[in-house]
């Protein structure tokens, strides 16, 4: 099966995870794809195929004779998607010989344009896969799944020598829980790569340190005609909280290694209000300074409005995998050589986000991230090129060859 055929086959199975759920996995629909993949993995000749009760799917391709002592490599992708723009059937649209200009997405009224996405001009002549503009596509991260299983099929049909290869597909990555119940012993790899990046050739081993911050504001609500020196409007205090933060240190105003505060939701009335942020920074010291800033805001506003008016809760989410992976730089060196072999320019970039590999690295499985050929994830403008996916498969095959011939 061609890699694009696999992707189209997978994205039509909707698998949004649910951040509000307390179940594991957070949505039962993820099992629909997992069972489909379980069957396909068995048909491809993988052994020890296990789908556990938390929707983690594992399998192995045993080493070819004489290659049993090669380091055991693993490849990981996630089955869930974001819940945004995923409330109805996903209809993939294939555009052959894309002209590099504006592309109307179905009848949605949305236009995929180089004005917002300058890289589109570089995709001229390629075959693009998009949604119809009313949903996400789901290439994040079903492209990674498609590329891993296409790589496995190529190894089998072309009888390529290899060490033991481990495969795993995880649930709930999009809500930060993809590595929570990952069974390292069942997986069995010494090193691994997640396939969860953007452009083909991306190699990422630096990610944000991450936490979420929740402000709860308790107001004092009285009749507005009698509010002089008495009323505390919780919504206005919430606005003060946000105004205390540096206005340019948001996702829109930052790039590369620059961190940010991101207000993701807010609710407010006179009596109470809530602000929910995610906070990110690649630098560990800078990350701690950001948390200190939040605590200072809590302290100062309580001094102004009265103790207990503002309550801050900070929850750490993941750490920068660099401190683990930099001890195993062969993972990056071999990935760069694999890109060269596949005729792709390697792009060693920091992740402005996180992957399952962030947490898995700290659990003892060094796990950098590779690109899949996709772009504009998490929204209706999501797109991927067939050629980018094919190149990603070639990179995986070259990577396995690097370790086999080491």
From TrEMBL:
Q: Does the keyword Heme apply?
A: no
Enzyme Commission designation: 3.4.11.4
One Pfam family of this chain: M20_dimer
The record's similarity note reads: Belongs to the peptidase M20B family.
Residues where Zn(2+) 1 binds: 78, 140, 196
Q: How is the cofactor bound?
A: Binds 2 Zn(2+) ions per subunit.
Please give the name of this protein: Peptidase T
Q: Which GO terms describe its biological process?
A: peptide metabolic process; proteolysis
């Amino acid at each position: 099966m061609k890699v694009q055929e696999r992707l189209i086959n997978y994205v039509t199975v909707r698998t949004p995870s649910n951040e509000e759920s307390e179940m594991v996995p957070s949505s039962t629909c993820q099992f629909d794809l997992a069972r489909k993949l379980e069957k396909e993995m068995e048909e491809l000749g993988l052994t020890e195929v296990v789908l556990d009760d938390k929707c983690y799917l594992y399998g192995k391709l045993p080493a070819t004779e004489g290659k049993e002592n090669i380091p055991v490599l693993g490849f990981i992708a996630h089955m869930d998607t974001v819940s945004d723009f995923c409330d109805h059937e996903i209809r993939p649209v294939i555009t052959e010989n894309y002209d590099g200009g504006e592309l109307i997405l179905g009848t949605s009224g949305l236009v995929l344009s180089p004005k917002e996405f300058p890289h589109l001009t570089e995709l001229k002549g390629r075959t693009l896969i998009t949604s119809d503009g009313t949903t996400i596509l789901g290439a994040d991260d079903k492209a990674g799944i498609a590329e891993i299983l296409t790589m496995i099929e190529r190894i089998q049909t072309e009888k390529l020598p290899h060490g033991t290869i481990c495969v795993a597909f995880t649930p709930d990555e999009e809500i930060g829980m993809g590595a929570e119940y990952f069974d390292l012993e069942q997986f069995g790899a010494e090193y691994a790569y997640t396939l969860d990046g953007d452009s083909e050739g991306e190699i990422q081993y630096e990610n944000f340190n991450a936490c979420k911050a929740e402000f709860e504001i308790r107001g004092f609500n009285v009749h507005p005609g009698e509010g002089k020196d008495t009323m505390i409007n919780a919504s206005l205090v919430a606005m003060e909280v946000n105004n205390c933060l540096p206005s340019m240190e948001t996702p829109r105003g930052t790039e590369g290694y620059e961190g940010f505060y991101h207000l993701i939701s807010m609710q407010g009335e006179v009596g109470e209000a809530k602000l929910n942020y995610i906070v990110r920074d690649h630098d560990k010291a800078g990350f701690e300074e950001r948390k200190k800033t939040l605590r200072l805001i809590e302290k100062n506003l309580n001094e102004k409005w009265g103790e207990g008016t503002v309550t801050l809760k900070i929850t750490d989410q993941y750490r920068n995998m660099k401190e683990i992976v930099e001890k195993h730089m062969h993972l990056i060196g071999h990935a760069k050589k694999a890109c060269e072999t596949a005729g792709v320019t390697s792009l060693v970039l920091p992740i402005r986000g996180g992957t399952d590999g962030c947490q898995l690295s700290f659990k003892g499985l060094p796990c950098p991230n590779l690109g899949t050929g996709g772009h504009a994830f998490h929204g209706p403008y999501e797109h991927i090129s067939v050629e980018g996916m094919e190149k990603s498969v070639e990179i995986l095959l070259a990577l396995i060859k690097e370790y086999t011939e080491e």
